[in-house]
Amino acid sequence: MNFARILLLNALGVLLITSWWVPYFTFWSTLDDAVFWWFNQTIGDDHLRWTEILAALNSRRYDILIMLCMLSVMGWASYRDRLGGWRRWFGIGVTMLITAGLVSEMVRHVITYGHPSPTMTFDEVNLASSFVEFVTKDQAGNSFPGDHGIMSMIFAGFMLTFGDRLTRLASIALTLLAIVPRIMVGAHWLSDVLVGSLSICLLLLPWVLCTPLAPRMSASVTAGLKRLESILPLNISNRS
Asked: Do 19 and 199 form a contact (C-beta atoms < 8 A)?
């Protein structure tokens, strides 16, 4: 158990929240506004091809593509793992899903603060959905914290802990590809991700990934899978 790393990451999470919460400290609000308007001015008929690309990057199909890519990276990691192979990564995947579910429930019940996305806060904004004929997400009644950001960061956290150098880099790239389009289209403020999502992950994930909890959970799932594999042939032979 690496208490020093846990405390450091937790301290960074608290620092992020504090920097955003402190009254009269306008850094985050100023940055949020600047980032939103910089991207929003690029949406419209004058930049129709870019608007279509941005809308596509915030569609349901793109979300599915990112999810499939994440599964592919985990499959690639299991292929490169010469010790535990796919069984070990099956255990890691189950542990990651359980962690994501628990974090999601905790956020839903504990965090009571929320605010609308910038596209629902300002008047006379350019909505990508107004320039395309397919469904895209460019608004949110409550965009804090970024749920896409939390789930993507959990994936990246597990890959950084259990993966090798190449799969770690791939996970970071996928996390950015999942998060950035939401900010660019105005469905999230920058602080929804860099403060909301990141601070939550910095406060919670270290207690899973920097302790024996995640390795033991994944090892237990792997061991259970191996026992199941040893039992199933016996059942088949008994029936025959």
From this structure: no
Q: Which DSSP string do the residues of 103-146 spell out, in sequence order?
A: HHHHHHHH-------HHHHSSSPPPGGGS-SS------S--SS-
Q: For 79-136, write each residue's pLDDT tens digit.
A: 988 877 888 999 999 999 999 999 999 998 898 888 999 999 998 999 999 999 999 9
Q: At residue 193, what is the residue type? A: V
Q: Is 86 exposed, middle or buried (0-12, 13-18, 19+ CB in 10 A)?
A: middle
Task: Assign 233 a pLDDT band (cuts: 50, 70, 90).
Answer: low
* Predicted TM-score of the model (pTM): 0.91
Which phi and psi angles does 62 have, rounded to 5°? -65, -40
Q: Which residues, 6+ apart, have CB-to-CB distance to 219 below 8 Å? A: 91
Alpha-carbon distance of 6 to 15, in angstroms, equals 14
User: In the numeric block, which tokens belong to residue 186?
Assistant: 């105005």
Cα 67 to Cα 70: distance, rounded to the nearest angstrom: 5
How far is residue 17's CA from residue 203's CA, in Å, rounded to a whole number? 10
